[in-house]
Specification:
62 residues, mainly alpha, 0% strand, single chain
Length: 62
């Protein structure tokens, strides 16, 4: 992961922020997905994760 971060930091503009974060069950629950959705839409974790972009709201007062 550090190698990826290092490469991205070399090529991205300095004013942009780069965040690597994984998808957790808490993220899934935060958008109120229920277990029935998973039964109705069988997928591997990778397939599921590729369909959703779930991020916590970040405080912009940094």
């Amino acid at each position: 992961m550090e190698e990826v971060r290092s490469i991205v930091e070399q090529i991205k503009p300095a004013h942009l922020r780069f965040v690597i974060s994984g998808l957790t069950w808490a993220d899934v629950e935060s958008v109120e997905l229920i277990w029935q959705w998973f039964e109705d839409n069988p997928a591997t974790w990778a397939e599921f994760e590729s369909k959703f972009c779930i991020h916590k709201k970040q405080n912009t007062e940094e």
